[in-house]
Write a structure and sequence with these properties.
single chain, mainly alpha, 16 helices, 63% helix, elongated
């Protein structure tokens, strides 16, 4: 994994942990020479097992070592009125009033633009801005689910699924993973009533990421693999978007396997899976990439088309970006 900021991040985290390079070596079993070369930027890359060992020695998540965006500061602000408003809109009062239909000025296209803006702000780590906009976004999306034609309502459910997915991601960044899972569960329920066959697996990818944050690596691995298999089994890998979602789920599974510390975990046969299914884990990343290339060839989608076509804004690709760098390293 190559990263120009790796050495800087490693040194900062080591100093925050009040560790010398020698003490980090004792905790991680990574040689002091490797640590010194990384921190002095004479070495810009390391194998995933080395990164995993360093993260364990520092007492941080692997994504933190790889430059994970900072979460909302835990200064009490996250429990203030803004956070309460987000919690309330995720979990409306029981036996409360039903959503009201949209008004004459409502525009689904405008709502979609605002949702895309919210995801852009999230990936720019502007979490306070996203929290401010979420209550209105989710309220408008809920109203859209009870308005207009059947097609309009399905579009409303898709918008609701994406806004609740966004709320789940923000909740994770605030350290509220239980609230995040509630939001994502409701996002899946909304997505199931939409016309987008890729939306549920996209949100499942967010659930897997949340499980990773909770240390539930086996659960994260299992749901990511099942969702990836559902995409392939449903014939959705014949499109660029389908391939991207399938690839993100597979990389998520690889992340869970690698972070578990058992790099052969997913290479063992799994009940109900075909013999030629993709296996994950550090040694299995090559197979993942080979599978993507094979599916891409079968779909007739060129490499350049995949590079140029944007990742859907509601796909949490940034949260698994470090794994893509690892995959590139070992391919």
């Amino acid at each position: 994994m190559a990263n120009e900021d790796l050495g800087k991040t490693l040194r900062r985290l080591r100093r925050l942990a009040a560790l010398t390079q020698e003490e980090l070596t004792e905790r991680s079993n990574v040689s002091v020479d490797v640590i010194r070369q990384l921190e002095q930027r004479r070495k810009h890359s390391a194998r995933l097992p080395t990164l995993h060992a360093l993260a364990n020695g520092l007492g941080v998540e692997l994504t933190t070592l790889l430059g994970d965006p900072p979460a909302v500061a835990a200064s009490g602000e996250s429990d203030g009125p803004r956070f309460v408003a987000v919690r309330r809109v995720i979990m409306p009062a029981l036996w409360g009033p039903q959503p009201e239909p949209t008004g004459p000025d409502f525009s689904m296209d405008r709502l979609r633009e605002h949702i895309a803006d919210g995801w852009s702000q999230y990936h720019a780590a502007e979490f306070d801005t996203v929290m401010k906009s979420l209550p209105d976004l989710i309220t408008d999306a809920r109203s859209a689910t009870v308005s207009g034609s059947d097609g309009d309502r399905r579009a409303g459910f898709a918008a609701l699924g994406k806004t609740l997915q966004l709320a789940g991601h923000v909740a994770v960044r605030m350290g509220k993973t239980d609230l995040a899972l509630t939001s994502l569960e409701r996002a899946i329920s909304a997505a199931e009533q939409s016309a987008d066959p890729l939306l549920v697996p996209m949100i499942v990818n967010s659930v897997a990421w949340t499980y990773q944050r909770q240390g539930r690596l086996a659960d994260a691995l299992g749901i990511a693999l099942r969702a990836a298999e559902s995409i392939e089994g449903g014939g959705h890998t014949d499109t660029a978007d389908g391939l991207k979602v399938w690839g993100a789920l597979t990389m998520s599974a690889a992340t869970s396997a690698a972070r578990s510390g058992d790099y052969d975990l997913a290479t063992r046969p799994r009940a109900g899976r075909r013999a030629d299914d993709v296996r994950v884990g550090v040694r299995g990343v090559r197979g993942v990439l080979g599978g993507i290339r094979g599916l891409r060839r079968r779909a007739g989608v060129g490499a350049e088309a995949l590079r140029q076509e944007p990742v859907p804004p509601h796909l949490p690709g940034a949260d698994h970006a470090p794994v893509a760098h690892v995959a590139a390293r070992v391919s």
